[in-house]
Automatic annotation (TrEMBL):
Transmembrane segments: none annotated. PANTHER family: LIPID KINASE YEGS, SPHINGOSINE KINASE. GO terms for molecular function: kinase activity. Pfam families: DAGK_cat, YegS_C. Belongs to the diacylglycerol/lipid kinase family. Keywords: ATP-binding, Kinase, Lipid biosynthesis, Lipid metabolism, Magnesium, Metal-binding, Nucleotide-binding, Phospholipid biosynthesis, Phospholipid metabolism, Transferase. Residues 1-135 form the DAGKc domain. It comes from Streptomyces macrosporus. InterPro entries: ATP-NAD_kinase_N, Diacylglycerol/lipid_kinase, Diacylglycerol_kinase_cat_dom, Lipid_Phosphate_FormReg, NAD/diacylglycerol_kinase_sf, YegS/DAGK_C. Gene3D superfamilies: 2.60.200.40, Probable inorganic polyphosphate/atp-NAD kinase, domain 1. Its cofactor is Mg(2+). The lineage of its organism: Bacteria, Bacillati, Actinomycetota, Actinomycetes, Kitasatosporales. This is Diacylglycerol kinase.
Amino acid sequence: MTSEITLFVNPTAGRGRGAHAAQPAARALREAGFAVRTVVGVTADDALERAREAVRGGTGALIAVGGDGMASLALQAVAGTRTPLGVVAVGTGNDIARALDLPIRDPAGAGRVIAEALKAGHERTVDLGRVGGRWFGSVLASGFDSRVNDRGNRMRRPAGRLRYDLAMLVELASLRPIPYRLAFEDGPAREIEATLVAVGNGPSYGGGMRICSGARLDDGLLDVTVVGKCSRTTLLRVFPRVYSGTHLDHPAVTVHRVAKVTLEAPGVTGYADGEPLGRLPLTAEAVPRAVRVLTAPRAGVP
């Protein structure tokens, strides 16, 4: 008899795609012979507690259905345990699924990949970032990009991604360098002026923006991308290159690969996996082999 697995569902992800995505994903898993139960919380805290109950109860896998916020919430339940994580990515950004080479906005396809991984016992163990007691899978953002998030979250109109596009234009008009104090584990603290500092366990945020393009999920390190003081013209010229990761070649951009970093800057909020962590200072550390994930086999990897 196959073990029971748990779908962890955000019904509002992707403007309601989460609720619809759970059905084809569950169907694919049941057709593969798995017993499936669904967990939907009333609030984020309630959902997390229900997910943790499922993990404590011995569920065979926890499958997050939604966007990066739901996948990140699921990480809080499975990190450091033997319970594997599956991701049915139907949100706006889906950067955690993207880093794991999982199907995006294809819930039936994702369900089949998860079923095949469970049957074959194929799990990939990857690193996570951690800030205090909070785990993150993709990127911790601070500076210009987190101020765009702050402003977008305060706005009521327009809806969806357009709200954040407008917020970016407003923040761009008032662009100014931010005084940071960065402390790496292997050296003295340094004071710099920067446009933004991003700490990557994975390479991308914001739906494929490869801000930490060289970050790997299995190297035990975090990639700290520093975009130095630059003008609006320079930022506008460099910004499109973030989707290909070629912005790292620009002289205003530096990258540090470290196990631990502390970020300090006045009035700046940190966001990890798109969710607010709180005001800086924040200390992020890499935790090697922190979580098991269900993925399709990679070429040349057993």
